[in-house]
Design brief:
mainly alpha, single chain, 3 helices, elongated
Length: 79
Amino acid sequence: MNKADEELVLAIVPTKPTLKKLYQEHRKLEKEVARFERYSPYSSTADLKQKTLKKQKLKGMEQIMSILQQHRQDGQAAG
C-alpha cells in the first residue's frame, strides 16, 4: 500500500467499520509475516505458515483497495 492509500485509509476508517477491521487485520498480518521471515529459511513449517499469512494479507489488501476505489468513485460522483 502506498503512502497516499494509507493516508486515505486512515482518513476514512472512522466512517467505515469494515475498512477499520480489514486495516487492523492487515497490520497484524504484516507483523506476523515479518516474524516468520526470520525463521522460514530454517523451517519448512515456518515457510508454509509465512506463505499462508502472505495469501491472507493479499486477500485483505484486495478488499481494502476495493473499498478505497469505491470511496474515490463516490467522491468523484459527488464532486
